[in-house]
Amino acid sequence: MELSQALPLVRRGDELAWEFFVRTFQGRVFGLAYHYTAQAEDARDLTQDVFVRIYQNLALVPDESGCLPWIIRITRNACIDHLRRRKARPPLWDLPADELFDLRSTDQNPEEAHLAAVRKTMVHRALQELTDLNREVILLKEIQGLGLEEIAAILEVPVGTVKSRSNRARLELAQKLCAAGMGG
């Protein structure tokens, strides 16, 4: 089934189309939620919340071209709400960043897996040090693969701002990674 075929069925509440829809977008929703929260459990909960919100508003699901930006906007808003609530009620303890990643792989030897985990942790930490807008631009453009116009619409800023922020964000991220010993 193609997304363009599934969307009218999703809007009408077809269960198989809904399952296809969720499977199509759940990885992206989880990935974005994880980048915002840095907690796998929170990202899973937020992913479920996002799809509940979408299901409650099936008639509002846009056409194929507008579907991904719409879902990302819902995910972003859910994440921001979650982070605001978390700031109001800070957790009792924080997990070390090393425990956030489970990179077991049958394709890599232990040394390669360790180096990949270290790199991923360093990139994640560097992303967390970016300003909120720069981090969002990197997440939406580089990780989610959205275009400048879509990002501008989601962030409600001009396209020119997204372009300049994208360049600044990439430079800032590169500087942080170099300072952490990941350069070159």
Overview of the structural elements:
The chain has helices spanning 3-11, 15-37, 40-56, 64-88, 110-129, 132-143, 148-155, 159-179. The longest helix is centred in the middle third of the chain and has 25 residues, at 64-88. Helix content is 73%, strand content 0%. The chain is globular. It is built from eight helices and no strands. The relative contact order is 0.10. The chain starts with a helix and ends in a 5-residue tail after the last helix. It is mainly α and 184 residues long.
Uncertain spans = none
The biggest sheet, with number of strands, parallel, antiparallel or mixed sense and barrel status, is: none
Molecular shape? globular
Gyration radius over CA = 18 Å
Number of helices: 8
- Using DSSP, what is the number of strands? 0
Helix and strand sequence: HHHHHHHH
Q: From the helix content, strand content and strand pairing, which structural class follows? A: mainly alpha
What is the CA–CA distance across the termini?
44 Å
Q: Tell me the strand percentage band.
A: under 5%
How would you state the average pLDDT, rounded? 84
Query: In which range does the helix fraction lie?
Result: over 70%
